[in-house]
Every structure is written in C-alpha cells, then in structure tokens.
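Re: beginner question about structure tokens

> Can someone show what the tokenized structure looks like for a real chain? I only ever see the sequence side.

Sure, here's an example I had lying around. Input first:
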Amino acid sequence: MSGTAPMVLGLAMISAPAYAQDQDAQEADAADESVIVVTGSRITNPNLELSSPVGVVTSEELELRQTNVAEQFLRELPSAIPSVGSAVNNGNGGSSFVNLRGIGSVRNLVLLDGRRFVPADTTGRVDLNSIPLAVIERTEVLTGGATTTYGADAISGVVNFITKQDFAGVEANFSQQITEEGDGNVFRTDLTIGANFDDGRGNAVLSVGYLDQDPVLQGDRPFGVFNVSSFSGNAGGSSNAVPANIVFVGPVSNVIGQINNEGTDISPGVNSAAGPFNFNPFNLYQTPIERFNVFGSARYEISEAVEVYSQAAFSKQTVATKIAPGGSFFNTYQLNLNNPYLPVAIANRFCTALGLTAAQCTAGINTPDGATTAAGAVNPDYVEFGTQVRRRSVEAGTRDSAFTSTLFNLVVGARGAITDTINWDVSGTYGESERIQRQSGFARFQRLQNALIATDVNTCAQSATAGTSVDANCVPINLFGPLGTLTQDQIDYSFALTQQVITATSIATVNGTVSGDFGWGIAESPISFAVGGEYRRFTSTRQSDEASQTPGAVVGGGGAAPDINGQYSVYDAFGEVNIPVLEGMPFAESLTLELGARYSDYSTAGTEFTWKAGGSWEPVIGLKIRGNYQRSSRAPNIGELFTPVTTGLSNLQVDPCQLALPVGNANLTAVCIAQGAPAGSIGSIQPPPAGQINVTTGGNLNLGTETAKTWTVGFIAQPEAIPGLTFSVDYWNIEVTDAITIPTPGDIITGCYGNITAASATDPACTQLVQRSTTTGAIAGSAAEVPGLILQLSNLGLIQTDGIDVNMTYRTDLSDDINLSLSFDGTWTNENIFNTNPANPASVNRDCVSFYSVNCSSIQPEFSFSQRTTVSFYDEFNLSLRWRYLSETTQEPLDIANGNGPAFQGNSPLFGQVDFQNIPSESYFDLSGQWDISENVLLTVTIQNLLDNKPTVVGNNIGSTAFNSGNTYPSSYDALGRRYGASVKFKF
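And the corresponding structure tokens:
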C-alpha cells in the first residue's frame, strides 16, 4: 500500500458491513478524494473496486462495543475463529492473535497502514495487544489469499489497521467496564493530539494510552467452580492431589496408597487412586493485562513533488496467567524407606511391592541413618526405590507466569509524483520486540529429589542411586502429609526458585513502489498499475535459564523451552495491473481485469512465484459480479525451522493401553510393550491425568514452502428500487498443499490403534510414533522420561476449506429526525479439512467445522453472523442493538470413533441433567446508547451480553487445554456474563 494520505475505502466499504454512524458524510468525503488505496492491492486509483471482498470494521463500531484490544473484535468476526486471547489462560503466552478462516494464525498477516508490523514471537505473528486502537480509523479484513500483494503468510487473508490521517485537534477518551458480578474491571484512557502546520503542508499526531484489565477467576462463576469430567459427568481433575497419590515404580508399577487429612492410610487396595484434584477455581476466565502505549506520526511536503513521512509505535504490557498449585507431579523420584515423613502403612506397602521379607522391611524402616554407616561402609539395611509422589503443593500457592512485552516499530519514507498520474513511494521499517516470561510457584526436580532423601525431619542425606551430593541448604519435605503440612522452610527450598524465558524478535523492511495509471487504456478509464520491490529480514531468539531449557527440571511446567536462534531474509519483486476492458456498454456498464505476480527469493526456502487473476463485471447499474483466483504461498517461519525438538503437553482422554483395555488382548498387549511399557504394568497403566499427555515435536530445517490455491466468486448489489441497500454474496475456497503441519493426537492414535493385528507390534506407526514410560507404561509423565506421541513437523499436510460470506448494509430515514441503519455480516463454512499426510491411507480427512474435540482446538461454527440495528434520533442520540449468532456444535464423530468414546449425557452429580455431546446454537445481544451531550462531548453506554447468557457446560477434558477450560469454551462462549461499560470522549 502506498500510504498516500488521506486513504478512504470507496466501494469496498459497501461490500461488507460499514458500521459507521455518519456513513453519508463519509461517502461525501470519498467523492472529494483523488486517491483510494484498498487492502489487497498496491494500486492507487479513485475508481478501484477489487475483485476480492474486503470487510470493514470502523472506529465507531469499536466505540459501540467498548473494545479495548483488537483481538476482542477480531475473534468475533464470522470469518475468523478465536485464537489466543484474553479468554485463554493455560496456553496463553502473553500475546493475542487472529485466526482467519480457521486455518491457523500463522497463515494470515496483520498490517498497520499496509505495512508489516514487528512480530511478537518466533512464528512471526503480530501481537494484537499492541495495536493502538485510539488512532485506528478503520480495520480492513481481506479473507482470501493476498500473498501476491504482501508476500508470504497471507494465505487466509490480511487484517489491515488503518490509522487516522491528518488528525487535528485534541481527543481524550475515558472508559470503565465491569461485570454484573462486580469483577473483571477494565479501565482505559487515551489522549490523542494532532495539528497541521506550515499552511497544511505538514501534520503531526501523538497518542498515548493506558489500559488496566482485572482477572476473573473460574472459581468466581458457578459453572467453573467444580471441575467435571466430560466423559463421566462426575468430578474431574488431576490425580496430582492432596492427599498424595503414591505410585511404586518398579517391575510391577501400581498405586501404593493415599494418606487422608488425619495422616492415615485410606487405600485398601494397591490400585486405588487419590483425587481428583479440582484445579478449576485457581484458573482464569479473563487474564489480566496492563498496557502503556505511544503512537506518533508525521508528514511534511518538502515540495510539490516530494513528501516525507514517519510513524512510530511503542508498547509495554504485562499479561499475567495463573494455574493451580504445582507439586511433585509425575517425575520418578528416589525415596528411602526410612524417610521420617513416610507413614508406616505406606512403607509396608512398598516393602510388599519390593518383595522384602518382614525382617528386611522392619530393618529398612528403622534404619537410623542413610545409605552409608558412620564409618563410611554401605549400610546393609538401607532401602531406596523409585516412586511417584503425586502431591499438590497447595501451601506454596498457584503457579504464575508474568509476560512483560516491550516493542517499538518505526517507519520512515518519502513519496511523490513522477507525472500527473504516476507516483512513487519508498519506505523503510524497523522494529524490535522483547517478551520476558517470569514463572513462580514451580518446584525444581533436583531440589525435590534432594528433599526426599532424609534421615530425619531436619537432615537430608545422599541418595544411593541418584548420584548427587547433599545440598547444605536442603530441607526435607513432607509430601505424604495432609493439607497444611508443608512448612515455609520446605516451600522456600523446593518451590521458591523462579524461571525466566526471553523471546526477542526484529523486523527490517525496505519497500519501493511506482504506481498510478498510463493515462490511456482500452476503455474510457485508464489502465492502472503498481510495480516494486521489497526486502525483508526477520530475526528471532529465545533464551531460557538453565532450568527452563532442561526437560523435567521444572516440575509441572509443561515442556522445556530450549534456546532458539534463527533468521531469514527475502527479496521480492512484484507487479499488478488493473485493466478496464469495457465501460458504458449494453450489459457491460463496466468490465475490469486484474492481474498480479510476485517473485520471492527466501534465504531458507528458495524461490517462489505467486500470481493472481481476477475481474469484475457490471452488467447493469447496481449489480457487480466479481471473482479472483490466486496462487499463494507461505515459507516456514523461524519457529518451524529452528525450534529444537522437545517434549511438551497435549490432550487425550483415553490411552488405548490404560488399565484393563489391553488385558486379554494379546496383540494390543504386545503393542503396548513394544512402545516401552514394562510387561508388569499391563493392567495398571493409569489414564492420562487431567486429559493431558506428553508429545514430542520441534522444528525441521528441511521444510519448504507450502502453496495454496485461493479463489472467490460473488456479487455486489445496490438495487435502485431500494435506496440505501447494499448487499453482497461471495463464495470462497482455499486449498493448501504441502502444508506445514503436525499430526493431531487423534491422528497418531488412529494410525496405530485403529486396526490392531499381530503385525502392529513391529509397525513403525506404533513403535516409532508412540513412546511410553519404561517404568509406568504411561504416555504421560516427566518430560525427561516420557516422549509420548511423536508429532513430526513436515510438508505432507493438506488443508481445504470453503464457504459463503453474506454482507448487507441498509440506511433509511424513518422521519425527518429519525434514521434507521441495519448491517449484517455472516459466514457459512462448508468444511475445513485437515489431513497431515493424504498419501498415507491411514491418515484421515479431519473436518472440525461445527465439531469440538482434542483434535479441533477452537470452535468453528458452521454458520455465524453479526447483525446490528441502529436508530438515530435528531442526530444527537443513537440506540443500537447488536446480535451475534453461533450455530450448534457437537462432539467430533472421529473423536468418538478413535476410542475417546462419547461424551457424557445424563444426570451429572455436579450439574444435573447435561448433554456434553452438544452445544446448542447461541445468540448474544449487546445494547449500546450514544449521546452527543455537546459538540465536544460524546457519551457511550453499553450493556454486553444483555440477556446474561451462561456458557454451555461440556466438561473440562473434551478439548484442548487452551480453549476447553473451566468446563466450557470461554474464547467462543461468554463466561463473564452481563457487563456494563461507559465511556466519554472529549473532542476539541
């Protein structure tokens, strides 16, 4: 985009709902402008009407919604599905993203005034928290390939934030929001100052803003207080509990016992289990954020032929997440039989599991010292063994992460005229971001191990097998006692250390464009064009402390965060042409052809050629038919290339080898053993705790570009018989081949266990892609011990999605003083196919439209829409009602077929009669009122979720942890309830 100021949207504005209150005035302004730049093209032309649909959300619409962060309104677009945002807690990395068409947040671009913005992480995604909404005039959303115009990453589309141009005056905004429950308070204030100078040759704008958003705990909502299993309807949670769940690790691993709050063994059988631990109340439905941002821009006409311009953005923000207290979790520890905190009843069970005689057991329990005697000789009575003591350290508090992000983004450029109809524009961009994650409340494995080898309550001893020396600061820990038995000294030693991970990125671009028209053409209007070149360079690093990058060193912290250091650069050459073919003829009021091409040379992925061809045909005035076909591409990002292979967490409800499932099935038993499970563990392998398993994945330096075919066809209608009405219908289709993907957990499970035979025990799909614990047989546990499912990143994938967008705007006068405005923006998605390896007969076409499961991440309804009705009185007061609709969704059939089983239907002890297999259609209503108190003061009052709809409960383990949280899907369905907001804007 050339950046010519001011920029207006033209006909693209009426191809989608334009929510502005003063639409007539905007259209009048548009008629006076000489240059129009539309997202999706670099051509400047006052009559440009693109063949690709472009949606628009105006600043007036954001005022009505009381929007504070860009992710809030983008996740509610019918053409998008929720990505990481404020409703994601466990899985939130401190940044917010957009996911157009549901094919991945790495497959769309986020631009500021048509230029790339500094990314937030190693994947190259832009943090939407950093977009300065106070200076955004409108947001243009092109959902369809735009690689030819903007380069790689724009496969599913582009979100382009357009800032206010030539702003002059002072604008101060103050807003406050709060839920009906009295929590979730949001305060925001912005001050924007702009001025023209030197007789209008120059303009400068400065805007500063502050945002403070409070958390909302899941325990503060009745449907979030108690964790419920999606598959039983009973209380759910984690087997890491208080009292502890104690597991013997040996030739026959099993649950040894549990201690109640009186310190008494309450485990009559070796297969009894503690818990589940209810972790819900500690988690968040709304993550807190504090943000300070500054934005500035300036331009100056040096001469009639040259204008220089600049732009700067700065943001500093802190996003805080909170999850339930940690503990000792699933690591295997060495424990001494004479540990002073080990109850005798549990010690006796260990003796039985170890095969000790009564005399050996008594001697081992009563040994007064450690593995060696005072003389240094080996103590013959000393007994040490492997165990998992799954105990929550509630006394130590929650596990907290604070993500502090700081970024700046600078633009400098110059533009001018070569001739009366041809312009040039040269600009450079440089930006840096840094995100510091600080973790607290997590235990360190080595310190827990030190503290578990003790001769008395004050003295740690050296392990006979762990091979470590005694830490002089070590404090023995009581993991076997009831709630309240962890002392502050024990907490300080094992849990007080913090971790830090720093992610840094940079972007540098240089862009040069020549655009305009030739002054002649085939038809009356001239041929327009744009040609240019661009250089981009991305760098990204992740630096972690030693504990964070060591698998298993941080207990309960998920996967390790190994260091990343990568960069790549790309040279682009591009060109576009817009050719009016026919004008003012019968059945051809206009016929226009659009062509474009881009050649890219990546330092990592080689060369790539993309192109587009489209056009529009207006057979009669008021009806325009349009279509566009593009070959797009996306090169692998730094994270996909350079991330070291590491083990982290994913979700699965049922392990095919758990408990009695393999018992009596020789072929399945052989598979479980071939994957690493000890033969003695068959029949006692525990289900995935809290529905979580280990997965091992990482980058792949051999990745190439993925390619996409994207096309749209549709029409825009403005019937003369209904003045003020505009509507459009567009069919869109996206197919990505050689897609950079990793399998879902369901893909791996189906590939191995879908058809178990005698040969399965030697099938690589079973033996190479599933690696179990060699002690417990589970696919969950310490990241240092259990690889779990192997999810390999490759170019083997296929993504295919298509659907229809419908948009409408209507404005009419009900009387001389009362106006009515209507808008509608809806999307019907036919399918969203994902296949990690179509060449493999065992690989499935997974369609997640209108389905939810651990394989489908966020909710994508089959049909969703947003409709607004606004009545304006005397040009002073507006009353506006917004209706947002999401169609019904159900449990993914493949999820059931793969062995996870159907979700619970029936009478849940916690929630009564429920149906966790189905989320009914949902309608949300927001009511807003705006009053021009005076020429300088605008008051806006909003009630969000007017009817106080509660989210449908589906349990806590039917989907991925990031999006299925607090027994529902809080990114898709409102978990906060009715909210009230008020803002006042002063303009001078």
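Each token stands for a local structural state, so reading them left to right follows the chain. The longest strand covers residues 564-585.
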